[in-house]
Amino acid sequence: MKRSAATPAILRDLRSLKVVVIHPRDQDGDELLAQLQRIGCAVDVFWPRVDALPADTGLVLMAVRPETLSTHYPWLDTPSAPPVIPVVTYENPVTIEAVLQLNAFATIPSPVRSFGLLTAIAVALSQSKTSRARERYIERLEQKQAKVRVIQQAKQIVMTSRGVSEDEAYQLLRSQAMVKREQIETVAGQIVKAHETLSF
Q: Tens digit of pLDDT for each residue in 35-84?
């Protein structure tokens, strides 16, 4: 694969990509394997199933066939599951539903040709990376919101118990956190928990 200064990072990293191919060793399977090896990927081939992916698997190419539609792949349910590119032989409602359940960002039609495989891989890897970054961002936002809610609850408890303003309650929480050398949300959580225990 020819490289240039303008080559996207994903394409530059393909030679270190570990790919799992879940596909029978037929003409399509052989074509996939040959193309991936030409690109420089490390490839493991399985059929008809694989219950646990090899370590550091970065991409899965999977044949969507009638015999695989009812197959459960435990690794698909994990947060760290790599992106999957289905190899689709038929285009019907059942196949489309199977592809959607794989959360695929790209597909490869059968019979497999050399043209389009590299693009499908690049799109799948890029979209998967974007999706994971978005998920991490949302998770951080949710954690931040949870901390804000706890601090808000603790301020309300301090305001009620001490008869102080919201700003004074916050300063009391902040001072307590500094004394204990802890995060303010940790101190706030302790106050909320103690209050709930006493209320119970």
A: 999 888 999 999 988 889 999 999 999 999 877 777 888 898 888 899 99
d(CA 88, CA 67): 13
Q: Based on the domain organization, do 154 and 191 belong to the same domain?
A: yes
Examine residue 175 and state whether it is found in any structural domain, yes or no.
yes
Rounded distance between C-alpha atoms, residue 70 and residue 6, angstroms: 43
How do beta strands 108-109 and 18-22 pair?
A: unpaired
CATH number at residue 149: 1.10.10.10
Torsions phi, psi of 75, nearest 5?
-65, -20
Contact partners, residue 151, CB within 8 Å, separation at least 6: 170, 173, 184, 185, 188
Residues 41 and 109 in one domain: yes
- Whether the predicted model's global pTM rises above the 0.85 cut: no
Are 109 and 161 part of one and the same domain? no
Name the 3-class secondary structure at 138. helix
How many other β-carbons are positioned within 10 Å of the β-carbon of residue 125?
24
In three-state secondary structure terms, 91 is: coil
